[in-house]
Amino acid sequence: MGPTSRETWAQRLGTFRASPSTFMAGPEGEDLGRHLLSDLRSEKLSEPTKVSLLALSLEYPAQLWPDAPAAEVAATSLLDTLVLLPPRPSALRRPLLLAATTALAAGGALGPTSRASRRLLPLLLGLASGRDLGRSFGPASEQRPLQATAWECLRELESCKPGLLGGCLGLLRGLLGQEAAVQPLSLLLALALRNALVIQARARAGLQGLLVAGDCPTEGGPWNWMLAEEGDAHLQPQAPSWPPAEEGECCLATLELSPEEARELRAAVAQLLDISYLLTPVAQAQLLWLLGWALRGLRGQPPVLFKPQLVRLLGTAQLTLLHAVLALKAAFGEALFTAQDEALLLRRLTLAAQHPALPLPAHLFYLHCLLNFPENWPLGPAGEEAAPLLLGSQLCRGLLPSLLHDPMALLARLHLLCLLCVEDEEKEEKGQDQSPRQYLEELLAGLRQRAALDGGPRALATLCFQASYLVARCLAGQPVVLTPLTHGLAQLYRARPALAPHFVDLLDRVGPELGEPLKVVLRQEVVSRPGRDEALRWHLQMLARVADGDAQSATLGFLQAAAARCTDWGLQQALLQVCRALLRAGVGGGLADLLQALARQLEDPDGRDHARLYYILLAHLEEPKLGVALGPSLAAPALASSLVAENQGFAAALLVQEAPAPIRLSMGPHRAKGPVPVLQLQVEVLEQVYSLELRFRVERQLYAPLGAVHVPCLCPGRPTRPLLLPLQPRRPAPARLAVRALYTTPSGLTCHAHLPPLLVNFADLFLPFPQPPEGAKLGFFEELWDSCLPKGTESRLWCPLGPHGLEALVSRHLEPFVVVAQPPTSYLIAIRLPPDSRLLLRLEAAQADGVPVALRTDDWAVLPLVGDYLRGLSAAG
């Protein structure tokens, strides 16, 4: 079978990338890797096509070479292809090197028994070092790119197999003084040195002359696998984050170095640090992290080696280098940084964070560094949050949060302000004009004032509660701050009860220092100010969270007054949730009378059953057993009461459970007749359901409340009649209907589910006018046309036509509304828009590609909707 063509490979690669697992499971998946390796040697494929094949092997090595034998075969074939390339310049040499390296590393074939590994490693080392093996490999113009690729491949292999280059430390160190590729060589040497130190420390052995220069391995010759076999097989962390003390310091402390080995190690580290200024900022930060990791906890290696670099880096404007300096400070502390260095770092961070032109990410970075600054001698227990001792209010005056700041920056600055408030009392005694605590109270008051705006953005309310949580967490032990915060939040709820979900979430997250007093004041706000009917559901939701055994009479009085206004299912369920909370809190007495009244007067049978069940539990169980019966899990331990033990299944059947919807609801054809628009709904079920009730809610209140639709029984596979849902628009506009289904399963459980929303289009609202007598149609239309002005408006637009022309378009979309027709070029159309608007269209002098439309309406707000509708008719077909 010959090589695959370029077009076939393009199609095959596209299919593979769309779903690799599906492709590999198909008939072509088994031979994909073999065909790829074979076609790389074909002279009929161009180099760009072969590069795309190699790119696939770099992206999906685990799929192409799933095990070590397959990876070994692939790497051998790739190396053979590399050797067979002609001496002229080629774009395949670097991808082939990367592909062979990736196949060995990802396939787990890298090891002393792998022939491909014994070929690849000396080849990479020769290319990187520029020896004769490298110079005879490819033209001179490709030596520099090949050398850079070889360094990256070696670094990747050392990362995947720690200790692989441990026997080449001396060689790499010797190349450092003469090699032009300083950056990749420096990073590789630092990584190999770190790995060798860790492996030898775990083996309780010295460096054993590893830092002394040795001979470079030749192709096919022996390779030193000793350290790689003793090291970890998994990928070591490369990010600038320090390992735990027991993993780093305690491990390296066991490394015993002779005086000569210690001297060689210091010389190697100093050599790397001396040339670090030649590296890019990101590479410098990586190098500092690797060397700091290597020397952290190592006995006999003073961190003073980093001191010359700190003199250079303390004034850096590069964030990566500043982060590396702070990491060194966290690792070595006062052994490397003096008090003057610490003060200089704090001042730099503080002033840099106040720069007005600073981008938001950089601003947040500086604030994060201040909040987590590693002090030389921190006060207080380890892990406790506190502002640095040298960071005073005067220095941070420019970092105080403001309502004009970005939300993320405001929260970070607020965090710093909270830490400064810990020592607020001492500074107040010195007669400050405005203490941090006073500024904090004013800021929180401003946030609450913005959150209280009725109809304000949700982001403002979210920011207010995020700030309140942050203050409660940082200042939990300061009542002088929490008391005004509690009263301020109570005032916010009084102004905007619709924020009840935010309050519930806040109560779930804060500790008892704020949570308990906040519950008390919120309960007082609810029971003392019933509010308007639209706020009742928020009051009930809040009361279900804060209700307890205190203030029973006031709470029960509020519930008795609210019961008369709970007319729909949602309010009744919210009321019963409050009763459930009172039951769990051990409230009796008046609660029994309330439950009896609810069992009689609630309209919804589900609500009456719940009230009756709660009354039975209250009458027959003592408080401890009542708490178990009303716990969150239905798998409660057996109770002593025979009534409850026998009726646990009955109680489960009474609870409305949320379940995945076995119901599919879709829109049927438009029904253009009657006094109001009516949606025809098609319903299908995946399993048998009984007593189906579909409840609809119109978003943005564009329509009057919609009634529920009831179906006694539905069976899968059995055709059903369309369900009719009348609409009562308050203005002619499309809308989105949220749908919820309540139904009973064959096992007797009552379930509810949310269905995908239904979209009501503008055309779904169209209604025809009553048909005038024959002969009076034109006069009827002209009378309607004249009546639109001067109250209404007139417009003209172009309606594009599809390939079937105007007659087919009108017949498909506008037939019920045609008053006068002169096919195929002229139509007069009258449409009634509920509740009391009209839309008149003149489609005359149709052309091949479109028809001019003159329209009049007595409601100017529908003009954009009409334009979008007419322009979309041709696309609809």
UniProtKB/TrEMBL annotation:
Lineage: superkingdom:
Eukaryota
Q: Name one GO biological process term.
A: endosomal transport
Q: Which residues form the AP-5 complex subunit beta-1 N-terminal domain?
A: 36-104
Name the chain's protein: AP-5 complex subunit beta-1
UniProt entry tagged with the keyword ATP-binding:
no
* Transport among keywords: yes
- Could you tell me which PANTHER family the record lists for this protein? AP-5 COMPLEX SUBUNIT BETA-1
Name all AP-5 complex subunit beta-1 beta-barrel domain ranges: 688-758
Q: Where is the AP5B1 middle domain?
A: 261-626
Keywords carried by this UniProt record: Protein transport, Transport
Under InterPro entries, the record lists: AP5B1, AP5B1_barrel, AP5B1_C, AP5B1_middle, AP5B1_N
Start and end residues of each AP5B1 C-terminal domain = 780-872
Q: What is one term from the GO cellular component aspect held by the record?
A: AP-type membrane coat adaptor complex
Pfam families noted in UniProt = AP5B1_barrel, AP5B1_C, AP5B1_middle, AP5B1_N
